[in-house]
Write a structure and sequence with these properties.
Layout: H1 3-16, H2 19-35, H3 39-56, H4 60-70
Helix pairs in contact: 1-2, 2-3, 3-4
């Protein structure tokens, strides 16, 4: 999905308080940023996905934490 559509869906997920969708969309945004070689943006989106995953108790939190750790942006946590 293109960036405009992704932004639109992110805004709607925020408005709907749809945390599982927020996690998925921020993770997708991070993947797209990495494909563009924009590592700072990728980590920004990964951080958002990670925080929502932590708050929601989502199993994705472990993978997101690992990705941030591998990029030097977080401590590795045990889940």
């Amino acid at each position: 999905m293109d960036l405009q559509e992704l932004d639109k869906r992110l805004l709607q997920a925020h408005a709907d308080h749809d945390v599982p969708t927020l996690i998925r969309l921020y993770h997708e945004a991070a993947s797209q940023a990495e494909q563009r070689k924009d590592h700072d943006a990728a980590c920004f989106y990964l951080t958002h996905a990670f925080v929502f995953a932590l708050e929601y108790g989502a199993p994705e939190a472990d993978e997101l934490n690992r990705k941030l750790y591998e990029r030097g942006r977080a401590q590795r946590l045990a889940f």
